Amino acid sequence: MKDIQTDIRKYGVLYFLIMLHLFGGGIANAAIVVSSVYAFIYFVFKREVDLYVVFLLLFTNICMGQNSDAENVSNINVGIYNNFKNVLILGPLALSTKFTFVLAIPFRALINITKSKNYFLLAGWYLLILLSLIGLLMSFTSGIENKSGLTVGFRIALTMGVILLPQMVSHKDDFLRQFDKIMYLSLVTLALGLMNAHWLFIVFGFLPFMWFRFKSLFAKVFIIICLGRVLIGVDTTITIVGTILVSLGFAGLVQMKMFNTKSLSHVGFFLIVIPIILTIIILIIPNDKIGYDFQSVTGYIKFKLIGDRKPIWDASYLQIITQNFFIAPAGSSLEVYFDYIQQWRDWPEGSHNIFLETGRQISYFGMLFLGLLIVKALTWSLRNVLDLLDCRIVLCFVAVYMVFGLSGQHIVYDGVGFMFWLLLGQLTSINKSENENIAYIGG
Predict the structure, then answer these.
(1) Protease: present as a keyword of the record (predicted)?
(2) pTM, rounded to two decimals
(3) String of b and e for 60-74 (b: at least 16 CB within 10 Å)?
(4) What does the radius of gyration of the chain's CA atoms come to, in whole angstroms?
(5) Is the pLDDT reported for residue 68 higher than 50?
(6) Rounded alpha-carbon distances, angstroms, from residue 112 to 48, 53, 422
(7) Residue 406 has pLDDT above 70, yes or no
(8) By mean pLDDT, which of 72-76, 175-179, 388-392, 395-399 is the weakest?
(9) CA 83 and chain centroid, separation
């Protein structure tokens, strides 16, 4: 009870702001403005960042709401969401905390530039932001419109820079305490059926970690409820099932001591390049015109990769290689031919592949640069794990990347992507610092 009271005193205002989004109208608009402005100021100027505060400020954007247009996200008709609002449209700008957080990253990076050891990558990232802005201006002045907006490439470029930020959490214990809070609130929200945004894919990937980490009976019950939702078909998608299985497999290998601090430094890179290799293979193989077996698991997986995803990937890659190497016009749509229904479709949505999405929205150069950044970030994280707890956490990130990165694109978007890479980046920075201290003491 004392912990709950302390938590309410410390974060009560943020909980209150979250609830105000449910009222709609002017009240929700005021909450959006206050939250968004505070998010920017907090992330730029706060010397030591509380990751749970960041998560609470993002909560209405990555966990709540009715996302009936979002593929693979349950369309929950919960009464409390009838008036819910998390974005305020101001002309061409969609104001929200997820936007102001990523807008704050370049300023935070400049303030902390003396702490950075990745000057080459920082310079490349700032160049990428400039190139994405040029693409945005090209489309805006040409009158191009897209229902997904024109700022996707710009927001992707901003978001991925969070990987390069230096350590903002003072101690490992603080990180774990904040991380546990984020995971527990996510777990409860998902178990109660109140989560209807793309953070749910991240939560499912961390269920095996939470089973080992949280010892309370309530936590175990909530985890079982979440898994039960998958078994009864409420949250049954190939992405969710695949993420859980890969994460569970990694957890089993850690439990059997096959994956540990030493082995991950050697095999980690090979795990990370699997999605890249699979993407290349799918792009190379010819279209399957025979048909698909929807009655078997392997048949359905084949359909999702070849019949459903490959046409979008092919159209995305064709656009990438035919547009300017450095600059892509923002807000482009794809013309996709789906062989299994023998129809052409206008496709303004994402590429359902994080590498192809960055290439399509920013440029071929953007795809190569951010692909390198993603591989290096995950490699750094695996090479700097300090104990089995770190192994469990980082491998959950890898599992989400391997599955959700090939079936969607939200881990490179503002909101979900920002929170995903912020958590991984901060854990890696802390572990690298501790490894350097150990090496210094040992030397």
Answers:
(1) no
(2) 0.94
(3) bbbbbbbbeebebbb
(4) 21
(5) no
(6) 12, 20, 15
(7) yes
(8) 72-76
(9) 26
Helix/strand/coil (H/E/C) assignment for every residue in the chain: CHHHHHHHHHHHHHHHHHHHHHHCHHHHHHHHHHHHHHHHHHHHHCCCCCHHHHHHHHHHHHCCCCCCCCCCCCCCCCHHHCCCCCCEEECCEEECHHHHHHHHHHHHHHHCHHHCCCHHHHHHHHHHHHHHHHHHHHHHHHCCCCCCCCCHHHHHHHHHHHHHCCCCCCCHHHHHHHHHHHHHHHHHHHHCCCCCCCHHHHHHHCHHHHHHHCCCHHHHHHHHHHHHHHHCCCCCCHHHHHHHHHHHHHHHHHHCCCCCHHHHHHHHHHHHHHHHHHHHHHHHCCCCCCCCCCCCHHHHHHHHHHHHHHHHHHHHHHHHHHCCCCCCCCCCCEEEEECCCCEEEEECCCCCCHHHHHHHHCCHHHHHHHHHHHHHHHHHHHHCCCCHHHHHHHHHHHHHHHHHHHHCCHHHCCCHHHHHHHHHHHHHHHHHHHHHHHHHHHC
Kindly state the tokens that stand for 375: 């591989």
Q: Where are the domains of the chain?
A: 123-278+355-442
For the stretch 178-212, pLDDT in tens is 999 999 999 999 999 899 889 999 999 999 999 99
Token look-up 């929700």 returns 28
